[in-house]
Amino acid sequence: MNVDPITLTVIQAGLQQVCDEMDLTFSRAAFSPVIAEANDRSDGIYAAEDGALIAQGNAGLPVFVGTMQYSTRTLIAMIASGEVSSPEPGDIYIVNDPYLGGTHLMDVRFATPFFRDGKIFCWLSNTGHWPDTGGAVPGGFSASATAVEQEGLRLPPVKLFKRGQLDQEIFAIIKSNIRVAEQRIGDVQAQAAALLVGQERLTALLDRYGDAQVSEAIAELRSRAKTQMLACLTEIAPGTYPATAYVDSDGVVNTPLTIALTVTKDEMGLTFDFSGSSKPCLGPMNSVRATTLSAVYLAMRHIFPEVPMNAGAFAPLTVIGIENTFLDAQYPRPVSGCAAEVSQRIAEAVFAALVTALPERVTAAPAGTSGNFALGGHDPSKGRDYVMYQISGGGYGGNADHDGLTNGCSTIGISKAPPIEIMEQAYPVLYHRYALHEGSGGAGAQRGGFGLDYEIELRRGHAKASFVMDHGRFGPQGALGGGDGAVNRVTVWRDGVAHTPEHLSKEQDIPLLPGDRVHVQTPGGGGYRDPLSRSPDLVAEDVRLGRYTRNQAAELFGVVLEDAAPTPDNDQTQTLREEKRATQK
Questions:
Q1: How are beta strands 384-390 and 489-494 bridged, if at all?
Q2: What is the residue extent of each domain of the chain?
Q3: Numbers of helices and strands, H then E, in the chain
Q4: pLDDT tens across 486-528, in order?
Q5: Is the pTM of the predicted complex or chain greater than 0.85?
Q6: Which residue of 58, 154, 156, 249 has the fewest C-beta atoms within 10 A of its own C-beta?
Q7: Helix (H) or strand (E) holding 429
Q8: Which of 258, 256, 262, 255 is nearest to 245 (CA)?
Q9: Around Cβ 429, how many Cβ atoms within 10 Å?
Q10: Cα(364)–Cα(352) distance, rounded to whole angstroms?
């Protein structure tokens, strides 16, 4: 290596800063709350020759770390084959085709070539979640689609910007196929602006250190990330580690889908074998290959966060056995639940497999659903249509060190629920409740975190509600003897009558009128280790704060609390726990 360690570290930080500034620009300039407030987006730098990840923003969604790499790689290959026109300075390609290294249709990817001395030095790319891309359901989350065409407009790689100018004809085609089209220009310009900021910052970095030195640093960082990942994997004893996770249903056929995983550790790294998983499904809970691979990568990122995030970190990780399963969707399989839901079940399977090998690092299962709730309708007071997209947090799993985080973001990213004040200002809704889902944390020596409990009323006009969520049938898995977290619950109140979706947390086109309400309770995280070993004082504190009832304290943790004061009775608690342990044996 010719780059000295200090310069290498500075260049690494500089590349990271380029991506972070792109993320910040994207969110600050975006129109849609899902990007501007929830940060459902990501930006990165990718290699000119093969699209390999060089750097990604710290504030970007981890699930995009793999998909943007494969999307860029596919674009490069299509340019080389002549399927896509060659790039020029100022060009920005747009693509959302899930089968070309993507996720679902709502995740729209931009990519621009970064030129130095007439040659492409690298690619800059980003992904943003558009609130709507057409299709049968406002927001794109069709719970019962049986073909991708029902989910929205599918775009192959085309130049939306040509030499810096927006192609009005292509943009007109996009607008004519999506809802609230007049609002999309704000997100389009924000997404393009983020790439322009990246070009400026990367130019400054290269001007300072020189193209050759930066290129050498990128190669060295990639090599070191592979070495560091291999070093981390030495913590895992050679052998095989099986696990199973389930998707509630595909939204059409009301039976569970199985993710069957076996992780094998050898001197080359880890092999993730998904043979035995369910076949491709009829409904929209199929996952495309890029998302499946990315889900494995992000799960390992959770376990080993100290490994730098670039393509080198993925090299020791091999994924096999997804062919002819619902984890390798081919056209025209519907995929709206791909990134938001199925990817989180994949990560959950990885956690469940490796928790016995790495008990100090791996947690019990987190809530594992993005809580996708779309509401599309007409607001008569503003005289315009709207599409509202709500994501929500849930509980994290307990771990060796502490209880799980409450109302944390999803496994796949850092997106957070938009503030209710913003949502009430932008859309004709009123939040009647926004609180903890009490009792939802899985029991354990370190309990799971608690989910979210919210209720929304439609105030005026008319609307249709759609849901693509999960963990309504099975709660997030506990680990090493811990209990499962509570399931996801959805109740729609129409004219005072309660309605529970047949698929529990998946349904579309539910008509709402003023006064109708939607009530959602997201899952809690799984518990970690035997709940009967949890400190009675900690159980008493949870009861005092209203997180569990006294009955739950006794049933889940074997802790008896007097009605007069929330303090554990040692004698009764000891007796109850002995009885429960005897029953377990």
A1: unpaired
A2: 5-226, 363-531, 535-584
A3: 13, 20
A4: 999 999 999 999 999 999 999 999 999 999 999 999 999 999 9
A5: yes
A6: 58
A7: strand 429-437
A8: 258
A9: 24
A10: 7
